[in-house]
Amino acid sequence: LVVEARDGGPATTGQCVARSLVKFALPWELGHQSVIRFAFGRDRSGAALGLLAQGLILLQGAAVIAARRTYADLLTGTRVTHRRR
Q1: Which of 3, 7, 69, 80 is least surrounded by CB atoms within 10 angstroms?
Q2: Phi, psi (rounded to 5 degrees) for 4
Q3: C-alpha to C-alpha distance for 67 and 6, rounded to whole angstroms
């Protein structure tokens, strides 16, 4: 599998970093903040952060079904292809 630009050329370093942040780091961090707020907080922000994290994961699935690309790929102008040797 290869991550490349939408036009088939090589993806830039910035595109790859942004793709990883949007796809992995954002839901991961929101999920962890949710747990911390539930464990130590007295407000309801933990539930909101948890719902947002789950929503991003569901959005990823919906984007794959609708556009055959993740929302991270749609936002960063990348795509994943399979290259045979």
Answers
A1: 7
A2: -135, 170
A3: 13
Q: How does residue 85 score in pLDDT terms, banded at 50, 70 and 90?
A: low
Q: What is the pTM of this model?
A: 0.73
Question: Which residues touch 15 (CB under 8 Å, ≥6 apart)?
Answer: 3, 5, 76, 77, 78
Joined together, the tokens standing for residue 72 give: 């991270």
Rounded Cα distance, 64 and 5, in Å: 17
Structure tokens at 23: 């796809």
Buried b (16+ CB within 10 A) or exposed e, 47-85: eebbeebeebeeebeebeeeeebbbbbeebebbeeeeee
> Quick one: tokens of 58?
């569901």
